[in-house]
Amino acid sequence: MKILLAEDDEMLGELVVHLLKKKGAKTVDWVTEGEDAYDYAAASFYDVVILDWMMPGGDGIYICKKLRESGYGGAVLMLTAKDALMDRVEGLDAGADDYLAKPFEIEELWARLRALARRTYSPIQEEVMEVKGLNINRTAHSVSRGDRKINLTPREFQLLDMLIQNRGTVLTRELIFDRIWGFDTDVSMKTIDATVKLLRKKIDHDESSSMIETVRGVGYKVEKG
Asked: Nearest Cα to 215, choosing from 171, 153, 165?
C-alpha cells in the first residue's frame, strides 16, 4: 500500500509513519503542509491520502477540494480532532471518502486504510509513450528519438519518466529530489540541476529548444503535446 500522510504534528506524524510501515505499508510519504500534500498527490498516485483537518499552507478541506477539482481519483481519509456531525459532513462533501477523529487507535486507522485501498485502483500508466518525437518505453527502460537510441542512467530515466508522466505540471525541485534521491541521502540539491543538464544534452541533441522547461525558482516541467 502506498500512502501519503499530511500531518503537521511532528510527534504524531513520526509515530503514524513508523506504525504504518510496521503494519506493512510499502510506502508512507509524510508532509507537514497542505500545499506539499497537493503537490505530492498531483505528481504520484497513492492508494490513500490521509489529510489532517488543520494544517499550515492549506487545511485538509481546502486541499481535498483542490485535489478533486483537479481530477484526482484516489482515496482520501480526513484525520482530525473535530468530531461534530456537521464537521464530518463538511469533510465528506469536500470529497473525502472516510473520516477518523483523533485520538485514534492505529488498528482502526489501518483497517480503514485497507478498506479504502481495496476500492481504489491505480491508473494504468502508459508503457510506451511518444512526446515531441521522443519515444519512451517504460517496460524496457529505453528511450529513442527517430533512429537514434538514447542511453540514460537509471536516475536520468527516472527523472525523465517522472516529468513525462506529469507533463503539463510543474514539479518542484524539492519533490523531484525527495522522489528520486530522498532527503535522507548525502546528495546535494544541486544534483537535480546537474542531472537535468545531462539529460537535456542527451534528449535534445540538435533541437532548437529543450523539452524540459525550467520554471525559475520552482522546478521543472514538460509541456503537454
From this structure: 171
